[in-house]
Amino acid sequence: MTQVEKSFRNASPWDSVSHLEQRLKDYVAIGRKLIWQRQAIFLAATVLAAVYFNPFSAILCYVGVLTTEVMDIILNRRIAHWTDHSERKARQFLFWVIANTMLSAGAICLFVIKTALQQPSGGHFTPLFFLFAASLFAAMNNHQLIPVLILRLIVYAATFLYLSLMDILPAPPAITAQPWLEFFTTIFVLYFILDCSFVFLKLYRRNLKQMDDLRVEHEKTLQAYEVKSKFLATVSHELRTPLTSIKASIDLINMGIVGSLPEKMVPVLQNAGKNSKRLADLINDLLDIQKIEAGEMVYRFSAINARDLVLESLEANRGLADQLDIGLESSFPQTDAYLEGDESRLMQVMANLLSNALKFSQKGSKVTVSVHCDSGRVRISVRDNGVGIAAEMRHLVFGKFTQIDNSDQRQVGGTGLGMHISKQIVERHGGIIDFTGEIGHGTTFFVEFAEIKATPAALAAA
Q1: Would the pTM of this model clear 0.70, i.e. be above it?
Q2: CA–CA separation, 10 vs 5, rounded Å?
Q3: Tens-place pLDDT, residues 232-274
Q4: Is 93 strand, coil or helix?
Q5: How far apart are the first and last CA of the chain?
Q6: Looking at beta carbons, which pairs linking 436-439 to residues 24 or more positions away fall under 8 Å?
Q7: Structural domains in the chain?
Q8: Helix (H/G/I), strand (E/B), else coil: 339
């Protein structure tokens, strides 16, 4: 068991300060949510008591109840805005909640007793029903703080017993008389309310335990994620240096700088060069992913001419296009369009879009890159004439380590990270990246950014 898990498991939900704070916050949240429901109940009871009994007494008792409600609202606001996690303050808040609960329960019970005293002997249906409603409301909504719940139920239970004994104690009737039936019915009602209280309390404690379990699992997941990120970063850095040296050596040999090669070694070394490049690309992508997830990716924004960005990316990928015998075309608006971004990162995005388009295009076909401006937006589209991608595969296109290849003739490998990295970069620029197309009719990937009016100073800086 980890240290994090022990810290949560060893703390009882009813004695730790963190759980006391949580229960206070939950108590306040329920109280604020049901405030108007409570006011409607109090007002309805006051109107009934005022119409059928003494209106002055009803209004006076309502003012007392309303006063405790105002105090409760003030206290709840203070608890809701409490953020310093102080143990002393938590205890203070609990004390004031208990004190105000005593006043509130006392005011409600005084209201009920005053109403009962105005009735003829026997029955007391209306005040008993008012008290039952208040008790059930407490059982359902005060389970977050056990002292508050116990205090309310004790005060309400004492009032229940007082009302039921009002007609028995002065002159005790026979055990079969109506007052005794009402007394035993009151006992049954008290049991019902107590049972409801335990049910809601048990549910709340179960929810607290589930929240603790989720916190433990969350902390363990974060720890595992951090270990994974550090491992990837370390391994990638350690692999990058020797791999760069190996790749450079193989490239020099393939270029013939160290001398001519035996004919049988040429394809072997060319294959080694291709695979070393794939490994280098994978390591670079892993490092980029790690930087993005750690929030360490650095961006240097400036005004960028969309035409220049496209032309430069086409030139950078022309070698791959020639190798695959695929043509590259471009289309631009009559006037230059500018966007704000990090040129090196956007070149990385364009390289991913173009390499994907070339991968999935047939030999002898063309890939078209175009720029469009509309409604203050700049859209750069890369269209291929390949096999296409089904719309339902969208969630895989931008995922990690996923590749969509509906062709048996893919000629270029990939890491499965390029489009995911591109999505993160584009969204960091406040743009969108998506695609349109269907199986058998090619695919058009596009990135879209806000268009800016580049000033001469911005152009000079770029």
Answers
A1: no
A2: 8
A3: 777 777 777 787 888 888 888 888 787 777 878 878 888 888 7
A4: helix
A5: 55
A6: 437/388, 437/389, 438/388, 438/390, 438/391, 439/387, 439/388, 439/389, 439/390, 439/406
A7: 3-221 (no CATH), 302-461 (3.30.565.10)
A8: strand
